[in-house]
Design a protein that fits this description.
Blueprint: H1 8-14, H2 20-43, H3 51-58, H4 65-98, H5 110-125, H6 130-153, H7 161-183, H8 187-198, H9 206-209, H10 213-233, H11 237-242, H12 247-269, H13 275-287, H14 291-316, H15 324-341
Organism: Martelella mediterranea
GO molecular function: transmembrane transporter activity
Protein name: Iron complex transport system permease protein
């Protein structure tokens, strides 16, 4: 602009160019780590099991106690992969569409909005089906995302990263208080809601997982469609529009995808925080910020982080366990402070 043609090298500097060979190497490394964590998730718990028991259970046998234990852990591992991938991907989408390095479904209050909607549905409307939980959570996540963006857009400068973060944090605290106010008088649902509010993947079954798959698939599809548009948005709204991108459509696709992913995940796992904050930053260090690579890497990284956190929770309190939502908070809290101290909250 200003009479100077836009050069490809400018795009490379903005998208954090890394060579395709380096990206492929990290892709293989990430896949190997994820496979190893899946095996560890099947093997580690109150009762450790052997590799032969894992192989037997995966082959469809359940003749020994070890094989039966592995069979029970398979849905938990699958849910950990799906939920972690959805949260990592939604965090990358939120950071990309807002150009805010502090964006995360938990920090922006989206998870808590989905949680509040589910609690209201259970306490006041008696919802019980998986489909009702999912739709209610997605509705709550969507309304909260719009509310936080509108509040963060008030005043001078529009929706700055700092204002969005403060609006999200305040909304999350307010909604958490509302959840407690609704649950405390209801002894009949208080125990289950409190356990769900912590966030975890224990007790997973394929019957619980199957209803959420179409929503996660829709969110993943929209995310991949929005990847190029997010690269353009990284240049700034005016330049993105000058390059022929519809800024509103690009942000809308990313927003709908993020709401579907984190809303559906919250419905089945409860509000799990910080995965969407930590993972995209680590992935940018490895492969740059080209969203065509960053989004799938964030999904793989989110799955790996959630499984690793779940395994750590099982090891820390054997023969019991620490819920994965607590472990991710312990990891994400210091990471959040580190990002703030870097003083790079104005732009990605």
């Amino acid at each position: 602009m200003n009479g100077t043609a836009f050069q490809p090298t400018q795009m490379h500097s903005i998208t954090g160019y890394r060579s395709p060979g380096r990206k492929l190497v990290w892709l293989v490394v990430m896949l190997v780590i994820l496979v190893l964590l899946m095996v560890a998730s099947l093997a580690i718990g109150a009762r450790p099991v052997s590799v032969s028991d894992i192989a037997g259970a995966l082959a469809g046998h359940a003749q020994s106690i070890g094989e039966a234990v592995v069979t029970m852990r398979i849905p938990r591992t699958v849910l950990g992969v799906l939920a972690g991938a959805a949260l990592g991907l939604s965090g990358a989408l939120m950071q990309g569409m807002t150009r805010n390095p502090l964006a995360d479904p938990g920090i922006f209050g989206v998870n808590m909005g989905a949680s509040l909607a589910v609690v209201i549905g259970v306490a006041w409307f008696g919802i019980v089906s998986s489909a009702a939980y999912i739709w209610t959570a997605i509705f709550g996540a969507g309304v909260t995302a719009v509310f936080v963006f509108l509040v963060g857009s008030l005043g001078r400068g529009g929706a700055t990263p700092l204002k969005l973060t403060l609006a999200g944090a305040a909304t999350s605290i307010a909604f958490a208080s509302l959840v407690m106010a609704i649950v405390l008088p209801r002894g009949d649902i208080a125990g289950g809601i409190r356990a769900w509010q912590i966030g975890g993947i224990g007790g997973a079954t394929f019957a619980r997982i199957l209803p959420v798959l179409p929503f996660l698939l829709a969110g993943l599809t929209l995310a991949m469609i929005s990847a190029r548009k997010l690269n353009a948005l990284a240049l700034g709204d005016e330049l993105a529009a000058g390059l022929g991108e519809n800024v509103a459509v690009g942000r809308g696709l990313a927003a709908v995808s993020a709401v579907l992913l984190c809303g559906a995940t919250t419905a089945i796992c409860g509000p799990i925080g910080f995965v969407g904050l930590v993972v995209p930053h680590i992935c940018r260090l490895l492969i740059g910020v080209d969203h065509r690579w960053l989004l799938p890497f964030s999904a793989l990284g989110g799955a790996a982080l959630l499984l690793a956190s779940d395994i750590a929770g099982r090891l820390a309190a054997r023969p019991g366990e620490v819920d994965v939502g607590i472990v991710t908070a312990l990891i994400g809290g210091p990471f959040f402070i580190w990002i703030v101290r870097r003083q790079q909250v104005r732009e990605l």
